[in-house]
Amino acid sequence: MPQITIDYSDIMADAFDREGFARALHRATVEIAAAKPEACKTQFRPSAYTVFGYEDPGARGHAVVHVTIGLLAGRSAETKARLTETALELLRKHVADTAFALHASAEVQDLDPSYRKSDR
Fold first, then answer.
1. Residue range(s) defining the domain that contains residue 47
2. Looking at the DSSP assignment, which residues form a beta bridge with residue 45?
3. Residues β-bridged to residue 106
4. Which of 53, 61, 91, 118 is in the most buried spot, having the most CB atoms within 10 Å?
5. Are 115 and 71 in contact (CB under 8 A)?
6. What is the spatial distance between Cα 5 and Cα 23, in angstroms, rounded to a whole number?
7. pLDDT tens by residue, 26-73
8. Is residue 63 part of a domain?
């Protein structure tokens, strides 16, 4: 824990400093949610096909990015809100200005009590 997943439109790949974003988000998660640095894990999942509103998907004028942060239960609503706001701020800093419109969102979810991990 935490388990961080970033789903994003592939058209933003060249404009998205994924490594810088992950490192900054890990630092923020440690500071805000009292996570251990070595426990922070992030996966990036590019999507080749994004549809926005009524726009023709082939126009590729919009990009979507969504950050999901899974934490063990027990953080306050204020802590979760602060972490999601910080994630959005960090996205603004780590995605370069581009010709497409960027739609960003973030959420913190409590991991299910059944959550377990294994390291090798």
1. 3-110
2. 7
3. 67
4. 91
5. no
6. 13
7. 999 999 999 999 999 999 999 998 888 888 877 888 999 999 999 999
8. yes
At 10, which CATH number?
A: 3.30.429.10
Query: CA–CA separation, 7 vs 63, rounded Å?
Result: 11
Whether residue 5 contacts residue 68, with contact meaning beta carbons closer than 8 Å, is answered with yes
Instruction: Say if CB 31 and CB 75 are below 8 A apart.
Output: no
Structure tokens at 40: 């922070």
Question: Distance of CA 30 to CAs 71, 73, 85, Å?
Answer: 11, 15, 15
The verdict on residue 116 lying in a domain is no
Amino acid at 118: S
Number of domains in the chain: 1
Q: Is residue 81 part of a domain?
A: yes
Amino acid 34: pLDDT: 96
Asked whether the beta carbons of 11 and 60 are under 8 A apart, the reply is: yes
**pLDDT on residue 99:** 87
Residue 13: the pLDDT is: 94
**β-strand 62-71 against 101-110: which pairing, if any?**
parallel
Distance CA 62, CA 84 (A): 22
